[in-house]
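dude i think i finally got it to work??
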Amino acid sequence: MSRHIFLTLSLLLAFPLTTFAQKGVVDVNGHPTYKGREIAQTMHYAGAPWLIRESRQREEDCEKMLKNLGIKPGMTVCDMGCGNGFYSLKMAEMVGKEGKVLAVDIQPEMLRLLKARAEEQGIDNIELVLGDIDNPKLPEGKVDLILCVDVYHEFSHPVEMLRHMRKALKPDGVIALLEFRLEDPNVPIKLLHKMSKKQMNLEYESNGFEVVRQFDGLPWQHMVFYGKADEAAKPD
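look at this
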């Protein structure tokens, strides 16, 4: 495991940011769990440099991921758990002047870091959104794509968050969920910060979503797109 990854995971353990007392989450021996999965703690903003580490392209093939998102000029897209804006800035260029990026994070410090980077690069089509742990505060029915890169497994309120995210999507909008592959022991990430595709589908399908497509060509991550399931399929 690289020193950068070890440092970040140490920070995850050192700075707990969330509390757990909500629908669907149960305490198992002092650990919050959802549908059998232990929920990880949110990465503290002190770990932000890891998000823009030099090795990220090699480890995750970020360029290939972006090419397979299906983003078009004029779209309204969301970078959920945007951190210091590694993907927000790239998507802002992809949607163009007529599009918009809604950059959501629960830590104002992360948003300040993103704001500074956007100003430095002259990018002005990013809207900063300070979300809550149970509500991303997105506009209802306005979003074409919500990108969740290695962040969903840290949601302390997954049911509430997915409900609000579902409402934010346009009828044909999708969530692009990326998580480090639990099934692959060669992915050098702690188990708590990985998810299996089976678990991803279980949680999303239980909350009114269905798989619409997937891309399996990334080095370390699953990439699955979820759209709204039939309205008759009520979330758990």
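The longest helix spans residues 108-121.
im so relieved honestly
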